Amino acid sequence: MLAQELKVPISAVDSHAPFLSRLESEAEQRGLRHLLRTRCADFGQLEDVPGSYDVLWAEGSIYVLGWKEGLTRWRRLLAPGGLMAVTEATWLTDSPPSDAVAFWREAYPTMGTLASNTAVAREAGYQVLDTFPLPPSAWWDEYYGPLRERMDMLRTEAASNPALAEAISSMQREIDLYERSEGAYGYVFYLLRVS
């Protein structure tokens, strides 16, 4: 989508080669393959020349590194005045339900509020241009809906695979928690510029 909208070369990095193959195939179908460079690598360990990129776009992935660590590691990759568009799991209320707090304390202990995340971004050398929460449909349509379908497909296999059964059960607990806690947390889009 970025290549299609911006009409500029895009570098896509992922550590899972099948995702990159799928992206290449979709780019080919849209006549955009010439604008796409893929690289199978750990996005937390990129050793590109400092200032190599004008824009860094990361949706639903910075949590792997943690908000502060990701912002710090990726800042050096951006050219002066470079932009970052990134989504981060964020508390959307000052009084989240206790079961949500307990879950996220274990799953992502550094999850912050909008205020704390913007403060960390500023400390890391970014100007915060804008923030906006993604709608709940981003969780349901793009993540939990497809995940539920996959879980349903795997339930028969899970009957004889305890590890798979536990993974499905764990994911179901997360889905149920989001449903009960909707509005307490979500993904926020942070639009940042290197100061």
Describe the structure using short key phrases.
alpha/beta; 7 strands; globular; 195 residues; five-stranded mixed β-sheet; two-stranded parallel ribbon
Q: Explain this structure to me?
A:
There is one protein chain. The mean pLDDT is 95. It is built from seven helices and seven strands. Helix content is 46%, strand content 26%. Helix 6 (136-158) packs antiparallel against helix 7 (162-181). It is globular and about 50 Å long. By secondary structure, it is of the alpha/beta class. The protein has helices at residues 2-6, 17-29, 67-75, 98-107, 114-123, 136-158, 162-181, and strands spanning 10-14, 36-40, 53-58, 78-91, 112-113, 126-133, 185-194. Strands 3, 4, 5, 6 and 7 form a five-stranded mixed sheet that branches. Strands 1-2 form a two-stranded parallel sheet.
Give a quick rundown of the structure:
The protein has helices spanning 2-6, 17-29, 67-75, 98-107, 114-123, 136-158, 162-181; strands at residues 10-14, 36-40, 53-58, 78-91, 112-113, 126-133, 185-194.
